[in-house]
Amino acid sequence: MLAALIALHALTYKLKDQYVGPSFLDGFDHWPYSDPTHGRVNYVDQATAIVNNLTFAEGKTFVMRADDTTVLDPNGPGRNSVRIQSKNMYSVAVMVMDIRHMPNGCATWPAWWTCGNNWPYGGEIDIIEYVNGQSPNHMTLHTSPGCTQPQSRTMTGTTTSTDCDANVNYNEGCGVQSGNSASAGSGFNSIGGGWYAMERTTSSISIWFWPRNSRTVPTVVKGGARAVNTKLFGTPDATFVNNQCDFNSHFQPHNIIFDLTLCGDWAGNNYPASCPSNCVDYVNNNPAAFSDAYWDIAALRIYE
Ligand SMILES: *[C@@H]1O[C@H](CO)[C@@H](O)[C@H](O)[C@H]1NC(C)=O
């Protein structure tokens, strides 16, 4: 009985940081640098983002979007967009995000991820990522050499690749594809989104998704509780384990990053499979095509 109580206690995390509406502006920096993934975007600073309403923070709403009004000079900079990075870093933690809408459409490549210093040595955890509006969500680790994942793990998603080493397979990483079509894109947005959670321990990384209409979403997730216990979260959509990957040497403290790039290494290469003309021309000439290219986040809570 005592052992059981201790085990349960060890899995309980307490609220450390809460980002809602304007607190995203205090807790995150806008990152106005050139996109390392070679997208057709121009990441703007916070003042520029706010003046142009690309970043909007009020009450319980935080919105980040790409410009959807400007036709671009093909020889000039890319489409204005937003990338933000948390000031705080986190290691063992649970992150729970209540999200109403994610960027969607041809050329878009949105991501919610965490990343350490000196990439890829500090490790990278991609929680939400998909391209060209093609659901489902992809969950992926990128690391230095010597970290792989078994093909079969306890999760509802499907393994798509097993070597996490960023130096192989063009930085494909070790990936898991969600089995839930509402995990991204129009399926996600049409129901008002839902909740994502990521737990990082010293021996595992797990990711869960519950759609807005889910009957199994834990009350603590739905209600933004002051403490969470992942034991009650059910089978994860994706799980990464440490039996072929020493987490201590592959994962360091991480910043949280949100971004929205257009075209670039993944969305650009994947673009012809489902979208018209070519990616860069489409971005340059069709601002109105990006009116659905926005994040609308109700809350992000970090538990430690
Ligand atoms: C800025 O964006 C927010 C969120 O999408 C929207 O509600 C608001 O009307 C916009 N403001 C202006 C001036 O366009």
Can you characterise this structure?
- The protein is of the alpha+beta class and 304 residues long.
- Helices cover 16% and strands 34% of the residues.
- It is built from 8 helices and 19 strands.
- The chain has helices spanning 2-10, 23-27, 46-51, 185-190, 219-223, 247-250, 264-270, 279-285; strands at residues 12-19, 28-30, 41-43, 55-58, 61-65, 79-81, 83-86, 93-101, 108-115, 124-129, 138-142, 158-159, 174-177, 194-200, 204-211, 227-229, 238-241, 255-262, 294-303.
- The strands form 3 sheets. Strands 1, 4, 5, 8, 14, 15, 16, 17 and 19 form a 9-stranded antiparallel sheet that branches. Strands 2-7-18-9-10-11-13-12 form an 8-stranded antiparallel sheet. The protein has a two-stranded parallel sheet with strand order 3-6.
- Strand 9 (108-115) and strand 10 form a beta hairpin.
- The chain is globular, with a radius of gyration of 19 Å.
- It starts with a helix and ends with a strand.
- 48% of the residues are buried.
Blueprint of the fold:
Blueprint lengths: L1 H9 L1 E8 L3 H5 E3 L10 E3 L2 H6 L3 E4 L2 E5 L13 E3 L1 E4 L6 E9 L6 E8 L8 E6 L8 E5 L15 E2 L14 E4 L7 H6 L3 E7 L3 E8 L7 H5 L3 E3 L8 E4 L5 H4 L4 E8 L1 H7 L8 H7 L8 E10 L1
The structure holds 2-acetamido-2-deoxy-beta-D-glucopyranose.
The site of 2-acetamido-2-deoxy-beta-D-glucopyranose has 3 residues, from loops.
